[in-house]
Amino acid sequence: MKGKSKSTFGAAGKIVAAGVVAAAIITAPAIFEKCNPLTEPSVKPRMEEPEKKAPMESSGKISEDKKTDISKLFSNRSENLKTDEELLEMVPEKHRPILGQQLKAFADKGATQEQQESYARIAQWVISNDNYIHPLILFNVNSLVVRSGGIPALNSMRFIAEETNDKKMIFQLIYAFNALVKNPNFKPEMLNEEFVRNFVSVTDSINKKTKLSEKTEIYRFADTPGILACLFGNPNSKPEMLTQEFAEKISETINTAVRRTGGGKQGNSMLYLIETAFGNPNFKPAMLDEDFADKMSAITNMMSVSGGEWAGTRLETLYSHPDFWTTDLIDFIHASAVVDQLGIKEEPEIILNFVYATKVIGDEKTLELHKKCGIMYFMRYTKAMLEKAYASLDSAYEKDAHNSVIIYNKNDWNKAFYNDWKALDVFKKSPRLFIYEVDSDKEFFATIEDISDNYGRINAIVIGGHGNPNSIELGASSGDRGNIDMSDKHELEVLRDSFVETPQVVIVGCSTGKKANGIAAMISDAWDAELWAPTMPSDVITEDEGKKVIMDLLTLEPVDKTVIDVDANGKMHMNALYEVVKFKDGILQKDK
């Protein structure tokens, strides 16, 4: 089944097939889950809380006698470093596998000796100064080292952190700085001593002015710089805004928002929401004011429920959508009325999905898609997808054209499927698109038959649900009623005439392709289909204390398991990279 980690094609195990790009599953610090375009946010802490230590003495200022002349770093090469083997012996044993793997990957990518040495020095320094270091911090180091000017910039930040006697500062700076240099408004020629010192000054100022520890002990802003990373990485942000005036503005906005939630878990959710909002392409730094803080805190307060930590997570999902941007309470009140009108239990999660739908496609289309297609979790799909799905319900629309179908589960226990819109959006190019949500095997079979009877045979279908080698989970029903499993062979065979001669099928469910005679093979055989399915939970290039991570070791970008596209005729094109198998007529055709 999909695990608790998140990914583009859902968390733990959604394959990116037929129109989907499955990617990095990261259980990590906020910046990676929020700002990475392929990941899903979570309100729960990303890292284990470090062992409590006495706070470091730090004035935050550098005395002149300690101040290092970092200007030379932008022209001179550092001295030679120790070998990789010697370096590995200098770090705690538990960190050696990941460090060794990254050093090898770095060399395999053609890194220069200078890049190798600079990376090794910084990695050694990072690890030696933090006993709970997460490997993704080193991924950020990798990403920066390969950029023009990245080596001196990293070394400069390291020296500055040492000078201030605030060693924790380097981790905050690396996160935020990596986001900044990826901003399209950033130019490599900007990297010099003055720029780095200014960046450090502004970042440190915001950390010191945003004193949130008393408001919420769950999420200490100074320890988790994802907010700044999302803000600095936003394409509407510009490097020129790095001023003390800007630092004052953002600090006051954050303090006001958290203060008006009352702190505690509410404050924690508020901070995650602000972080996600800052990463939304519709957000502009000019919006930072008291009114923005008031609206965001009011929405957080309204949508929070007793014991419902998920509220902040789902709000983040809503505010991460590029199709969506609002801070108006009226949208939430209106969506609640729509849900009530439909007779659906008014759970905050459902209301948030209807906030999104009514905002992006309007009431009429939202009601029609819910009534006819059973859709409740609208945030899984883009505006363009929902518009195409609504139009396709008219039998005269693109009559006799290619039929693409997406049938997703209703029992998403760990909210793993919310970010699938990033991959599924390619289906907006299909001539006709039908999107349904079901919670039982019988409803699944009936849906396929209904589409075929009313709109013609199905050319391509994506089936989404938590999975294992023998089943796909659609609902929470007891027994096998909520699953498509090995006992449904006959029911699947009956549906053969609902599909074209060689339909394309993608299963978005962990490990469904693991067995040569499992659920994927049975579906392929029953429908004479060309079918793709994942061989395992969508994890693992490396492991960090039991948590699996798929990342490009140098770019900090998620590794696509499968690259999929849909052409103008609706046909799926897939370039499986690994961990994906292909079946034809029930027979394993392509292994990884």
Number of helices in the DSSP assignment: 21
Roughly what percent helix?
40-55%
What is the strand content?
5-15%
Question: What is the C-level CATH assignment of the domain at 329-591?
Answer: Alpha Beta
Question: Termini, distance in Å?
Answer: 19 Å
What integer is the average pLDDT? Answer: 72
| CATH third-level topology of the domain at 329-591 | Rossmann fold
- The structure class reads alpha/beta
Largest β sheet strand count, sense and barrel closure: 7 strands, mixed
Low-confidence spans: pLDDT under 50, at least 5 residues?
Answer: 1-68, 70-77, 215-223, 306-310, 538-562
Q: Which geometry do the CA atoms define?
A: globular
The strand order across the widest sheet is 2-1-3-7-8-13-14
CATH architecture of the domain at 329-591: 3-Layer(aba) Sandwich
What would a concise description of this structure say?
With 592 residues, the chain is an alpha/beta fold. The chain has 21 helices and 14 strands.
What does this structure look like?
The protein has helices at 30-35, 84-90, 96-108, 113-128, 135-145, 150-163, 169-182, 193-209, 226-233, 244-259, 264-279, 290-303, 310-320, 329-342, 348-360, 363-373, 383-392, 421-424, 441-455, 489-494, 519-527; strands at residues 403-409, 432-438, 458-464, 466-468, 471-473, 483-485, 499-508, 530-534, 542-544, 547-549, 562-566, 572-576, 580-584, 587-591. It is an alpha/beta fold and 592 residues long. The protein has a domain at 329-591: Rossmann fold (3-Layer(aba) Sandwich), CATH 3.40.50. It has a seven-stranded mixed beta sheet with strand order 2-1-3-7-8-13-14. Helix 2 runs antiparallel to helix 3 (96-108) and helix 5 packs across helix 7. The longest helix is centred in the middle third of the chain and has 17 residues, at 193-209. The protein is globular, with a radius of gyration of 25 Å. The model is unreliable at 1-68, 70-77, 215-223, 306-310 and 538-562 (pLDDT under 50).
